[in-house]
Amino acid sequence: MKMKVKWIALIVFVVLSIIGLIYFLGLGGAIAGLFESLLVFALSNPDKASEYLGSFYKKLRGVNFWFEKKAVEKRLEGVIGFASKKVNSEGVNLLPHGVNIKWVETKDREAFLKNDKIVVCFESSINEARNLARATMLYTSEDLIRESQIFVNRTVMKAACFAVARKMLMVERRLDSLKCLNEEFLQPETTQHPSIEEYLKTMEKLDSEGHLTRVVLNELSEVSTKLLPSLSSPTAEAETVSFMQSMKRLAEKEEGIDIDADLRGQVIDYRIILIARKGVEEPDRYIDYAKRLWKEGVPKIYVLAQGDRIATAIAAVEVIKTLGLYRVDKEWKFTLSDQHHSFNAYTAILFRIQP
After folding, report:
1. Using one digit for the tens of pLDDT, what is the confidence trace for 257-308?
2. Distance between CA atoms of 198 and 127, rounded to whole angstroms?
3. Could you tell me which residues come within 8 angstroms of residue 228 by beta carbon, excluding any fewer than 6 positions away?
4. Cβ–Cβ < 8 Å for 316, 280
5. pTM, 2 dp
6. Which CATH number is correct for 218-352, 3.30.110.20, 3.10.20.30, 3.40.50.150, 1.25.40.10?
7. Most buried residue, 25, 117, 155, 339, by most Cβ within 10 Å?
8. What are the domain boundaries of the chain?
9. How many Å apart are CA 257 and CA 279, to the nearest integer?
């Protein structure tokens, strides 16, 4: 009943607005004003505009199957586009391209880059939940840290694509598509390659702490900057496995227990400063550690903190910057939620300043 009243109120508002526009601007002016408003909305909210256009096409699907296909296209493009922006807001250009849906008669290439968009190919529009699951998985498989994929261990990369696809489907609570992704795509993969499931568990635990996008995928995405234009690197593939082992230690860390989640490799080279002690404390010990890392030539530091330890982390980072040891490349303050409560978190990425 409340929903019905809401829609009636909205329709009355729209009708009165149109009448008002016609009265003050004339019919031509009113039409121009409406088109201008729609244009501004579409340009400022392209993903939502695509979803609304899909809903419009859906109303006309009984007229011609072309409208059915267009409805599916636009809804999928809108949902995936919106979710990819959410992922990118937590990292550094992790999904660099948009998405286009293309209908094909026979299976050819399932996903490829064209005109700065990832084109995802479909043969059927029968099951929308499955379409969204498949499109999201194909999109992440093609675009997630795209330039670094050839250097990352295949099992690690597959697990990362599943982790991000599941994360994207949860942005708008697409539980039916998530179920389809798990049953039709994930389970067959983990049956053949059980290690995918182990990596996936680690990644999703790290995501609950805010580290999947800001640490794991950020680190993997930068592998290509050190290796291109090479086409492969056995060293990098081995180091991505070692990297995930160190990240597993971070994911499984118990409060009050010190762990080593660092890696000093030929390709992946970083240290983590984990502000993990309870309560507020002086940042001196972390500043001294950063000084030692600078002397050792460590090129990159991640600073991680939660709750009342964030103030200590920020104070330490400010001093490290002032001393000219490391510069802040990226910095996030964000809120996370689990089953019991919400909490604030902080992540900073620092790069060494050369003497």
Report:
1. 778 899 999 999 999 999 976 655 789 999 999 999 999 999 999 999 998 8
2. 30
3. 147
4. no
5. 0.79
6. 3.30.110.20
7. 155
8. 1-44, 47-217, 218-352
9. 15
